[in-house]
Amino acid sequence: MRSIWKGALTFGLVNVPVKVYAATEDHDVSLHQVHNADGGRIRYQRRCEVCGQVIAYSDIDRAYDDGDRTVVLTDDDLKSLPSERSREIDVVEFVPSDQVDPITYDKSYYLEPDSASPKAYVLLRRTLEQTDRTAIVRFSLRQKTRLAALRVRGDVLMLQTLLWSDEVREAAFPALKESVRISEKELELSASLVESFSSDFDPDQFVDEYQKELRTLIQAKLEKGDAIDTDATFGEQEEEGGEVIDLMAALRASVERSRASRGKDASSSDRDEAADDAASDDKTTKKSKSKRSSKKAS
């Protein structure tokens, strides 16, 4: 695993240097979109609605729209925020673990001690275990201030980012306000049914059947030869405006039209000029193809 963030856990005068790692990963097969007629890649472009140009990601800023006005925020604006420069995970309070509602849990991260001695790290871990407490912390990650629960999982301290209170919707269902009578017999039978399905939870017993079958389908198609060369799914050349064209074909057509309009008695100087234009555009085409090959190789 590669750490995504380095900082320090701080509470009081205690400072625990740590490295942060993503605790989970997506196991889904990565799929992209292609044209069903020829298998060509479908790509999304970042196009400006004012000038119509395709914009490079490096030239894109962020903005807030209140309905009538738009405020543009540059990278320098965002970097100027104090939380963006913070490298500390500040412990706000220690709370009973059962007071943290699971609905507020978001992303999970492992913490690794990042010092010559892990004593402070182990001390904090054992203290949380002994007191059955969860630390509520604040820290900054990826341009956002996060609220998180610091708890113990095995021998490791882990962070679970929490949703803010206004991000959890209220469950207001009128049907649940109606009075419902449940008999003792119904409750007894329901409890009996639950008991018949009772077991200890073992996550290894459960498999994502869809992803398993998807991988099997892909492998079967590969073995059958039902596939196309990946290079064939890329277009010849993409201009700034997003149109894919064949420069040589366009060049030849232009030369032919030019010759036809001037007639067969065009001067030799005119022929030489057209030939020079063709040679120049031929070089341009070769350079464009070379750049495209470099992009594919990268």
**Strand order, largest beta sheet:** 1-2-6-9-8-7-5
The count of strands amounts to: 9
Distance between the termini: 23 Å
Oligomer: single chain
Give unreliable regions as ranges: 238-245, 283-298
* Fraction of residues in H or I helices: 25-40%
Give the number of helices. 7
What's the alpha carbon Rg, rounded to whole Å?
A: 31 Å
Shape summary: extended
The computed structural class is: alpha+beta
Explain what this protein looks like in three dimensions.
It is built from 7 helices and 9 strands, in the order E-E-E-E-H-H-E-E-H-E-E-E-H-H-H-H. It is an alpha+beta fold. A hairpin with a 4-residue loop joins strand 3 (62-65) and strand 4 (70-73). Helix 6 packs antiparallel against helix 7 (268-297). The longest helix is centred in the last third of the chain and has 30 residues, at 268-297. The protein starts with a strand and ends with a helix.
In short:
With 298 residues, this protein is an alpha+beta fold. Helices cover 33% and strands 23% of the residues. The strands form two sheets. A seven-stranded mixed β-barrel has the order 1-2-6-9-8-7-5.
